[in-house]
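Possible regression after last week's pipeline update?

I re-ran a chain I had predicted before the update to compare outputs. Posting the input and the new output here so someone can diff against the archived version. Not blocking, just want to make sure nothing changed silently.
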Amino acid sequence: MAKKLKDNISSSYFEAAHKLYPKKSRRRIIAYVESYEDVAFWKNLLEEFESDEHYFQVMLPSATSLSKGKKTVLMNTLNTAELGKSLIACVDSDYDFLLQGATAVSRKINGNQYIFQTYSYAIENYCCYADSLHNVCVQATLNDRRLLDFNKYLGRYSETVYPLFLWSVWFYRNKDTHSFPLYDFNECIGLHNIRLSKPYASIDALRDRVNAKLLELEKKHPSDIKSVKALAQDLKSLGVAPEITYLYLQGHHVMDNVVMKLLIPICKVLRREQEEQIHKLAGHDKQYRNELTAYQNTQLNVRVVLKKNRGYKGLFHYQWLQKDLQEFTKSL
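New output (post-update):
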């Protein structure tokens, strides 16, 4: 009886062990990305589509140099027969999705089924997704009180910069990078002097700057006014709406000059509240110091939390990406 039980256990063990070693090795699909910062985002996404037959390895586009960036990714993927079989490219859209083939790069990205793009301007825009920003504050401060409606605020911010955004895309669609360059656009749409007591005052000041720039552009380019306004309908068909313009602005700019300008003062207030609560509830000085130290040691840098934010999976751009990858893996 004991021998039979032992044989059954051995048999089960070997069957389980055998399952750990597939009959054939999994196919490796290399995914080239633009920079070190992009590796985690694309790896987390691509893992959803791995199987017993294939897996993805995310890496920079050059094994022989430190060359990085979108141009390097495209250069090292488009001229190889391996593209689509064991190699894909994963890039930020920048304006290329919105340009819809107006430039050579845009045609390559939008026309190749083995090049996957963010659809929003960049990964940073995903990290700044309004629905997720309260949770970023909670993780950084361990305080769940809401001081600002991020959806409402970024919605109003987006609507304010939207008319100027149309001009920016219009010029780039017409291969004009000089009349209204991106750095000039970004200079107009950053937030300044945010006060949590009157947070929307900064948007009022922004509106004045935007309107002044609009008047300048309309005066210099009167013949383009009608076409720029018509562009709004074209962009609407791509999912662009005035209230979510922040998703299509340069990602680093949105993170540094809009979202972080909000998060830093908010987290400062939330931490101070927690510290005051600890002081109020502490029975004696030693308990206060110990509890305060414990709280401070658990805090996280808000910029680090924002960069590692993964609360964007409800964003429709992410869902588009999932659909693209689902179709790709079905074809393997």
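Follow-up from reviewer: compared with the archived run. The two ends are 49 Å apart (CA to CA). Marking as no regression found.
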